[in-house]
Every structure is written in C-alpha cells, then in structure tokens.
Design brief:
The complex is a heterodimer of chains A (about 260) and B (about 280). With about 260 residues, chain A is mainly alpha-helical. Chain A has helices at about 25-55, 60-90, 95-100, 115-125, 130-140, 145-150, 170-180, 190-200, 210-225, 240-255; strands at about 5-10, 15-20, 100-105, 150-155. In chain A, about 30% of the residues are buried. Chain B is mainly alpha-helical and about 280 residues long. Chain B is globular. The chains are: A mainly alpha (about 260), B mainly alpha (about 280). At the A-B interface, helix 1, helix 5, helix 8 and helix 9 of A face helix 2, helix 11 and helix 12 of B.
Chain lengths: ~260, ~280
C-alpha cells in the first residue's frame, strides 16, 4: 500500500508532473504555526487599538470609528495574512514553509491573488466543525472547500537531492585509491551506491550499537558484490571501508 | 508493488506531519479490521484482571499489523494476534508499571508544593520580600516539573510496541527500548501527539456537540436534578463516548506504529541494505 497520496498533473504544456499530496498531518502542522503567528499579529493590532481607545476616551464618535476600524482590521488580518503570504511566496505561508508544503493550482502552476483570496475567504467555513479536516482526510485529492472553489491542491515541497559533501576520514582517501586500482567498482550498481551514501549521511544520528551492526552488514554485502576476499583489506573498519567505497565510486564516475 | 515508487516514502526519515498522515492512511485502509480490534479491546477492558491484559494486547495487535504494512511484510490478523498473545500477561505488567510511574510523578506535586509553602512561610517571617523570590522559584519549579513529566511521558510513549513487534518477551526490556529509541526526539514526539490529538478532534468534537444537544433536549422534559434525567443522559451519552473512543483508539496505535518505524529508520537504519540482485524488480 501507499502511505501518501500522489497526483499526476497535466500542465497547460501537456507535461505530466507527479506530486505527493501534503497529507492531514503536515497541513495541521502548518496551520498551527500559522495560527500562532496570526494570533500574535492580531494581538498586536488589538493592543494598538486599545491604546488609541484609551487615548480617545470621552470622544463619543471616536469609539464608534475605532469599533469600525477594529472589525475591518480583524477581517483584513484574518484574510490578509494568508492572501499576502500565499500570493507573495507562491503558495506558501510561514507555517506551510515550516511544514514544507505548498499550494499549487490544479494544473501545477503557482497560485495567484485570486486563488489565495478564495481559499482565505472559505477558510472560516472549513474551520467550522472541522469540515475542511474531514474533506482532507476522506477525499482522494485532499481538497478542503477552499481548494475546491479555488481549484488548488496542497502538495509536499520537493525535497532537494541531498548533495551535501560527506565528512570522511583522511584514511579513506588512500584506501579509495587502493580500491580503484584493485577492484571493479562497476560491479556496484547505482542503487547500491545510493544505500552506502544514505548510510554515511545518516549514521551520525544512529544509536551506536545499531550503527555498528548495520555498518558491518553493509560492508560485508559490498565486499561480496565487489568480489573482494576478506584478505584483500585487512585491518579496516566497516565505516572506513564504506567511506572508501563511496569516494572511489564517486571518483571513478567523475573522471569519465 | 514496485519498490521504486515507494522509495521516496519509505526508508527515509519522515516529518512529524507525515507520521500523522501515514498513521491516518493506514487506519483508513484497514478501518473495519482495526475498529473491530478496538471494539473487542474496549469490551475486554470491562472484564477484571484477564480483560485488563487482553485489552492492551488487542490494541497492540493493531500496532503490530500497521508495522507489518510499513515494512512491507503484512501479517494476517490471526498470526499477529497469536504472536502478541504469547506475551499476554506482560502487557498487563507494562500497563501497571506505566500506571505506577505516572502516579509516582503526579504524587510528587504535593510534596513540592508543601516544601515551597513551608520555605515561603519561614523566609517570609524573617524577611517578608523573600516570599516573592520563593513564589518565583515555585513557578520555575512547577514548569520544570511539567517539562520533566512531558519528557518522561514522551520517552515511554512507545512502551508497548517493542513487546508487540519484537521477539523480546520482557516488559522492562520493551520499556527500555522505547526509552532508547525516543532519545533526542522528545520535541518531535510532542508535535506528533499534538497533531494527532487535533486530528482526533474531528471525531471527538461532533460527539461532544451531540452530547450537549441531548442534554439540552432532555432538560426540557425532565428536571435536571432528577434521577431519570441523569440516567437517560448517561444512557445516551455513554455509548456515544465509548463509540468515539473505539473510533479514535486505533488511530493512536497506527500513529505509534509509524513513529516506532520512523525512529527505527532514524536510529537503526531500518531498511538500509543492498537490494537482492537475484530477485526480479
């Protein structure tokens, strides 16, 4: 089974794009952050209003005006917060950015003022009785009312391919040179290499015993794949060996 | 199922939102089965002693089944239930230990308050402004206590999962595994609990509103202080409450299973291995 809903979109240029939908969890995540910020802004506005109100006590018509300004301001901030950010940041708000999700149009283009406004205007209706949450959980495209009306979907931000340089020990470099000379790295498939890289990238966050066992197992598997005898590389730790394989594999394919 | 398609989903660390979404997705696609297990768990909970072991064990079966889905090795309900029920009594032990731990934590509140009260009294008698300092310290101590309690709760959040999923039969071992797996992830767990709780409101809130409506309607026909009113209210709202709990309980179990899976991916590199060359892709 699939754990996240996916959609394939047809752009106006007839290009097919695949997206992973945001999911109820990430959308709730974004919403909490947005509502925290938004209530902070609103509170600030109300404090300013209260200060004016105190300064103008005794002036009858001023209170009426302040009331009107208060209602207008509340509405502007309630709707404006989402419209402002979703338009300016191409479908993202601070909360959505934090949760790594984005609103796009049904055809994959970024949303504009019209879509952002429609979504914001229908937000109170979606929030009432959790209608929006119901629709997100139960429908295939995870659209709340605002999404239906505006013709938008909420998708996960594409993860940039992790190409950050890995930290490898200096000893791995000389071992990599040995490997390049003595073995056929072409025996290693790209997806094997991806697993080794994944391990090297994530090992720092792993629990020590589990990491040691996993490193040993991977090193063993790579050795088998490269048809290396145990005698070829005596006295190397599993991690060092994997680092060397990583370096050697990279160098071999960069030089071509 | 092609593995390529799911390579982006699985084997990589999940965001807090994704943990909740995946939990919901798994529950949705096994709604009847998991709801049925939760229903049985609820009714067994009414049976003293044996039921108190059976009930958490049945809920743990939901987590075990979900984990099977996540690692792409689904089990039948019978297999999962047989495996879990081999350790039936250990689930009761875990429930009791967790109960004792949390009761112990809460029982600390009063001694702390009393100590600060006495301290404030004595110091205040000698030097009145000291009361403010003691009060301030008391507030700091209160927050430290709450944060500490939340941390312990988060670290034991997965206490029953290793027992249900891993070969271990030792309840203490299972709790230790939860403690070790969750190390350094308390903040993420708190986010997940908060998000999952918000999602459960989708069910809980309408139930609350219906209960409130019933109360208002009944109050028109009966005296709100009378026995028939209270009995009728209970007769209507208790089943509703039990039903909503039965609907929500599997969701917590699936979310816990996804969190357990995600922590094993992060902390133990679960699923990181070279693909078998001989098997057809």
């Amino acid at each position: 089974m699939r754990f996240f809903n996916r959609v394939t979109l047809q752009t106006p240029e007839s290009v097919e794009l695949e997206f992973t939908l945001a999911g109820i969890g990430s959308r709730a995540h974004g919403l909490i952050v947005d509502y925290l910020l938004w209530s902070g802004i609103l509170l600030f506005f109300l404090v300013i209003l209260a200060i004016f109100s105190l300064a103008l006590t005794g002036v009858d018509s001023a209170q009426l005006w302040l009331g009107a300004i208060g209602i207008l301001g509340f509405f502007t901030i309630y709707v404006g917060y989402f419209v402002f950010f979703e338009t300016l940041w191409r479908g993202q708000t601070p909360g959505k950015r934090y949760a790594k999700i984005r609103v796009i149009r049904d055809d994959g283009r970024s949303i504009g003022l019209a879509q952002a406004t429609l979504r914001a205007l229908l937000r109170p209706l979606d929030d009432a009785m959790f209608i929006g949450a119901f629709l997100i959980i139960l429908t295939k495209q995870e659209k709340r009312l605002g999404d239906w009306v505006a013709g938008t979907i909420v998708v996960q931000e594409e993860r940039p391919a992790t190409t950050t340089a890995l930290k490898v020990s200096p000893a791995a470099q000389s071992l990599a040179t040995t490997l390049l000379e003595s073995s056929h790295l072409t025996l290693l498939q790209p997806d094997d290499f991806a697993v080794v890289r994944e391990y090297l990238q994530r090992r720092a966050a792993m629990e020590l015993n589990a990491r040691a066992a996993l490193g040993l197992q991977l090193a063993q598997q790579v050795k088998e794949r490269l048809r290396l005898d145990d005698g070829v590389l005596p006295e190397t730790t599993a991690d060092l060996f994997l680092e060397a394989v990583y370096l050697a594999y990279q160098q071999q394919f960069q030089e071509r | 199922m092609s593995q390529n398609l799911d390579a982006g989903d699985l084997g990589r660390p999940l965001s807090v939102g994704d943990v909740v979404s995946a939990g919901m997705r798994i529950y949705r696609s096994h709604l009847k089965q998991y709801f049925n297990l939760a229903m049985r768990a609820t009714f067994w909970g009414l049976v003293p002693v044996y039921g108190w072991a059976k009930s958490p064990a049945l809920l743990a079966v939901i987590s075990r089944l979900s984990f099977g889905e996540l690692v792409n090795q689904p089990e039948t309900e019978t297999t999962a239930q047989n495996q879990v029920e081999l350790k039936l009594w250990n689930f009761l032990v875990i429930s009791l230990l967790l109960g004792l731990i949390f009761a112990g934590i809460y029982s600390l509140v009063w001694p702390i308050l009393i100590v600060f009260g006495i301290l404030g009294g004595i110091l205040g008698a000698i030097f009145p402004p000291a009361i403010f300092i003691v009060a301030l310290l008391g507030i700091v101590a209160f927050f430290a206590f709450v944060i500490g309690a939340i941390r312990i709760y988060s670290r034991l959040f997965l206490a029953d999962l290793p027992l249900a999923i891993e070969p271990t039969t030792d309840p203490i071992e299972s709790m230790k595994r939860s403690w070790n797996l969750t190390e350094g992830h308390v903040d993420r767990i708190q986010w997940i609990v908060l998000l999952a709780f918000l999602v459960t409101l989708v069910v809980q809130l309408p139930v609350q509103i219906v209960a409130q409506l019933l109360q208002t309607i009944l109050a028109r026909f009966f005296d709100p202080e009378s026995a028939p009113f209270l009995l009728l209210l209970l007769a209507f709202t208790a089943p509703l409450g039990i039903l909503s709990n039965m609907l929500v309980a599997p969701f917590w179990q699936t979310v816990k299973a996804v969190l357990y899976y995600d922590l094993r991916v992060r902390r133990e590199g679960l699923g990181l291995k070279l693909r078998d060359r001989d098997s057809p892709i």
